[in-house]
Fold this sequence. Notes:
Blueprint: E1 4-7, H1 9-14, H2 21-35, E2 39-42, H3 44-53, H4 56-67, E3 71-73, H5 89-97, H6 99-107, E4 111-113, H7 118-123, H8 127-135, E5 137-139, H9 147-151
Parallel strand pairs: 1-2, 1-4, 2-3, 4-5
Amino acid sequence: MSRLLVVDASVMRAAGIAEHPTSKASREILAAILKICHRIVSQEALRMEWKTHASIYSRKWMRAMAARKKIVKSSGEICFEISNEKISEAGRDAIEKDRHLLQAALAADKIIVTLDVRLQEALEATPKTERVKKQITWVHPVRDGAARLRELK
């Protein structure tokens, strides 16, 4: 079953040609997305991040995804509020920085592929944001590997 994934710029940046474990895991997860029937969400804020942070490998991968029509444009306008939540300034900043990931995931199949755990940690801070975190399947390239994507089928 094809799933609609949100790929964070942290993965796009890390997926280089180096044999470093993070780089290799990021490359492998992007390759798995291309090989498996999964598609990715493309949203304005994500496209801007990808354009700024993508490695040469990621740019080639993105062209291959586009050629296979595996990129789905989305406005990702699902909204959630954190204004009344008692959350640290750092947590609030992490959520605001990556709000677009949450919006895109909630509007799609609720799956985020990311190396950055700060957003998850920030969402664990309060019951309301913890509920948002629990709705999402988080895939970490190093910790979970490409095998995790095969489980999403």
